[in-house]
Design goal:
Layout: H1 7-20, H2 24-30, H3 35-44, E1 69-74, E2 77-82, H4 87-98
Antiparallel strand pairs: 1-2
Length: about 100
């Protein structure tokens, strides 16, 4: 059976969803609401949330920002360069070492 809600009830529902921390899908499922109606009323009332998207952290990951480097050894000299060094620059550098 279809439940008719007035504007005030929908405003309350929309605000409760936004503060619940639940996605619209999860909130509508929990409260047995039609997602189509939810979106339509939210748009009609101009209560669409801004473009901010709430993200939920599901897994902690340690980021290691360690890039491999290029190491050139000529005699007693060691030169370390980032892995992103261009091939052109490397070839010029090697020519200088050889001369």
């Amino acid at each position: 059976m279809r439940i008719m809600r007035n504007t005030e009830q929908w405003q309350t529902i929309i605000h409760e969803q936004q503060s619940s921390g639940l996605t619209i899908i999860d909130y509508c499922r929990q409260h047995q609401l039609s997602m189509t109606s939810f979106y339509a009323v939210r748009k009609k009332l101009g209560l669409s949330s801004n473009n901010f998207v709430r993200a939920k952290i599901t897994q902690q990951v340690e980021i290691v920002d360690e890039q491999p480097s290029i190491t050139l050894t000529v005699g007693k000299a060691n030169v370390s360069l980032p892995a992103t060094t261009s091939a052109t620059y490397l070839s010029q550098l090697l020519r200088e070492f050889v001369q």
